[in-house]
Amino acid sequence: MNANKRTIRDKAEQFHQYHVKGKPLVLVNVWDAGSAQTIQSTGAAAIATGSWSVAAAHGEQDGEALPFQLVLANLERITKSVDLPVTIDIEGGYGRSASELKQNISQIMDHGAVGINIEDQLPTGEGLYTVTEHCLRLSAARDAAEQAGIPLFINARTDLFLQQAPEQHNEALLNEAIARSKAYAEAGASGLFVPGLQQSQWIKKLCDQSPLPVNVMVTSPEPSPRQLAALGVARISYGPYPYLQVMEHLKALGQRIIMGS
């Protein structure tokens, strides 16, 4: 293994160690090399992209509308511009079959990523892969990582809670998430990502019962990392929130300049 591979492997091992229940890794999601460098300068432990933000920064919609080659090019610019471990949100992996997924993830690691988010939502955006189907996809991702000799952090995202309004979240949905976490762990996942889950008591129950460290997404200043840590969360990400905040600031700045000219 060459020096570059060793560096990536070391970063991947380091990234795994950051996921501690009750002492969460906090990730302020970025969208390009410039935003990644800015977040690195704040003292962040790692860099994470958000697919929504990356797509928007390229003038595209989320949902794998951005061509995969552009995803790779953007990733490479990010990994070459920072010294921290980089994890990438790859949505559904840009491939439905296990073989497509395996090939794509190999390319992602070749471009410097040490972690991925991969969701169980169907490409149509409605419904989820069955547990069996998605486990085959996760196993393919793990196979790609093992062949590359990199302990890739596979953050298995379940969209159970995103596909139901918060007022429709219930115990049955939570139990399904717990069941999926167990199956995904056996298939080779490293973490469980549950965007859309907001109720504190259910976050705690999931953290207590999931064999995988739990990642919660926050899209506002609250709840705070300290509050989520008390529930047992191991990773906190902010999704499109940073991008939206930056764009709002840019818009306000532009309006002041234009109106004052």
Layout of helices and strands:
Elements: H1 3-17, E1 25-27, H2 33-41, E2 47-48, H3 51-57, H4 68-81, E3 86-89, H5 98-110, E4 115-119, H6 131-148, E5 153-157, H7 171-187, E6 191-193, H8 200-209, E7 214-217, H9 225-230, E8 235-237, H10 241-259
Parallel strand pairs: 1-8, 2-3, 3-4, 4-5, 5-6, 6-7, 7-8
Write up what this structure looks like:
By secondary structure, the chain is an alpha/beta fold. It has helices spanning 3-17, 33-41, 51-57, 68-81, 98-110, 131-148, 171-187, 200-209, 225-230, 241-259; strands at residues 25-27, 47-48, 86-89, 115-119, 153-157, 191-193, 214-217, 235-237. It has an 8-stranded parallel sheet with strand order 1-8-7-6-5-4-3-2. The protein is globular and about 60 Å long. The mean pLDDT is 95.
Task: Output the strand order for the largest sheet.
Answer: 1-8-7-6-5-4-3-2
Estimated structural class: alpha/beta
Order of H and E elements: HEHEHHEHEHEHEHEHEH
Overall mean pLDDT stands at 95
Q: What share of residues are in beta strands?
A: 5-15%
Main sheet properties: 8 strands, parallel
Strand element count = 8
Tally of alpha and pi helices: 10
Q: Give the overall form.
A: globular
Distance linking N and C termini? 58 Å
Which value, in Å, is the CA radius of gyration?
A: 18 Å
User: Helicity range of the residues?
Assistant: 40-55%
Q: List low-pLDDT spans.
A: none
